[in-house]
Task: inverse folding
């Protein structure tokens, strides 16, 4: 067959294939970079009412209203002996090497930390190991005993994130779903499967042998729902077991099977997706020398974790602001999360995630440029207090405190309200916050619904109160 005939037949074949393809239904290929994972929708399936009531009771009545009591019980276990650095009255797990001798000024935005700064944060996405999926799948499977059944069957919801979303989906002001979440049955603009920085490794090194230590933290990326399914679920299981009088050391291990699946140890980081939190105790410095602290009572309906608990303000998840992985390394910095949380929880602005791509974008949003200017002028000072873990869910937490000059605070946050979408603030009659006195501190520390990380911030700030006052005394000289 000559070459001309071969070419003609090939052309005819292509035309025939093209015509046939017009009548064949096209299958949409899954997008491997899709921002939201697919969760099998079960909205049309009725959940077992008794299971739902029990699930809600554990989350809202036991885990929230007995948070301090449960945390104190867990911290008393012998395996945490080296991690009770803050004492028996502050049930927050931290080693002495993780808490600096005094509050350390956080390097200003855009500045590199000096060698004497006690914290190094490294982002290394290549450190993520897909083999740990075997472990996390085992954790998820063991957690299904905690979840409601579908109707009268023995089939339970797939994972903890789906149960949280289906049963207590945050009732946000806007119910519009992101376009990528249309297929999800329970996601919205406040509850969705975004990316979080996942703690992968923790180690220390001597800065000056025998004197000071630097904490080195390595982060990768995990999904928020994986964090709920392998970390937050630990607190639910613990509260449920304790509510039924099962002791983790003397009772049956089946009541703590999720905890045992990750090794029952806070530093077993490869067996869970440890999304981290950032907690900042904020002070307004008044001309008379008074420090007013911003604290909040977290909403029972507007947030998906730690609802109904007492916490510092602001506080949030350590997450990238951009959805582009190209920027994750740059945004793996405490300032990115801190400024976002100030804009949202103190400034009253909406959720900023996924609106930001670069540092220049950040400075354009919601008065953040003015915040950075105040930081550079020295009328806003932020200090690193330390690092540790919540004893119930093993969540890593950064501890910070910020002091802002009163007139600067008023100028930066003209729309500040005591109450906001995620909770209600505590305040004295004549000002925004509560006077930071010894009586106020111990009053908060006795609150049974207070989070351990908030207790740690209050304890450390009170311990160094005179140092913090000296650092800002020249503001009104």
Result:
């Amino acid at each position: 067959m000559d070459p001309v005939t071969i070419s003609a037949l090939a052309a005819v074949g292509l035309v025939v294939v093209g015509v046939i393809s017009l009548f064949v239904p096209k299958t949409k290929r899954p997008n491997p970079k899709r921002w939201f994972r697919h969760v099998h929708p079960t909205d049309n399936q009725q959940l077992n009412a008794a299971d739902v009531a029990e699930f809600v009771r554990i989350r809202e009545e036991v885990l929230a209203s007995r948070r301090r009591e449960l945390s104190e019980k867990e911290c008393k276990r012998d395996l945490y002996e080296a991690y009770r650095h803050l004492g028996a009255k502050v049930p927050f797990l931290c080693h002495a090497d993780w808490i600096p001798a005094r509050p350390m000024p956080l390097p200003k935005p855009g500045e590199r930390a000096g060698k004497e700064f006690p914290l190094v944060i490294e982002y290394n996405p290549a450190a993520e190991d897909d083999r740990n999926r075997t472990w996390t799948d085992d954790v998820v499977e063991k957690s299904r005993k905690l979840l409601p059944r579908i109707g009268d069957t023995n089939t339970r919801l797939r994972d903890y994130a789906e149960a949280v979303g289906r049963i207590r989906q945050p009732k946000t002001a806007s119910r519009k779903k992101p376009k990528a979440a249309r297929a999800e049955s329970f996601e919205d603009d406040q509850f969705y499967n975004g990316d979080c920085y996942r703690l992968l490794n923790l180690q220390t090194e001597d800065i000056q042998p025998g004197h000071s230590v630097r904490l080195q933290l390595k982060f990768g990326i995990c999904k928020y729902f994986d964090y709920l399914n392998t970390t937050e679920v630990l607190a639910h299981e613990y509260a449920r077991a304790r509510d039924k009088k099962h002791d983790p050391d003397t009772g049956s291990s089946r009541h703590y099977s999720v905890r045992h699946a990750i090794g029952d140890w806070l530093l077993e980081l490869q067996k869970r997706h440890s999304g981290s939190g950032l907690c900042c105790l904020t002070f307004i410095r008044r001309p008379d020398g008074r420090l007013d602290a911003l604290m909040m009572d977290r909403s029972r309906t507007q947030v998906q974790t730690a609802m109904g608990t007492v916490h510092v303000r602001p506080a949030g998840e350590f997450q990238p602001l951009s959805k582009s992985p190209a920027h994750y390394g740059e945004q793996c910095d405490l300032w990115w999360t801190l400024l976002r949380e100030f804009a949202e929880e103190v400034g009253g602005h909406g959720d900023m995630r996924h609106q930001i791509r670069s540092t220049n974008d950040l400075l354009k949003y919601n008065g953040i440029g003015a915040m950075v200017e105040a930081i550079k002028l020295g009328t806003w000072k932020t200090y690193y207090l330390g690092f540790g873990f919540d004893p119930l869910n093993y969540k890593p937490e950064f501890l910070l405190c910020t002091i802002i000059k009163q007139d600067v605070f008023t100028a930066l946050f003209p729309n500040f309200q005591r109450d906001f979408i995620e909770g209600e603030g505590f305040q004295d009659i004549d000002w925004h916050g509560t006077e930071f006195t010894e009586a106020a501190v111990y009053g908060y520390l006795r609150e049974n619904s207070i989070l351990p990380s908030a207790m740690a911030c209050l304890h450390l700030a009170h311990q160094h109160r005179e140092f913090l006052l000296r650092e800002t005394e020249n503001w009104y000289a």
About this structure: The chain has one domain: 49-171+185-476. The chain has 15 helices and 14 strands. Residues 22-42, 173-185 have pLDDT under 50 and may be disordered. Residues 49-171+185-476 form one domain.
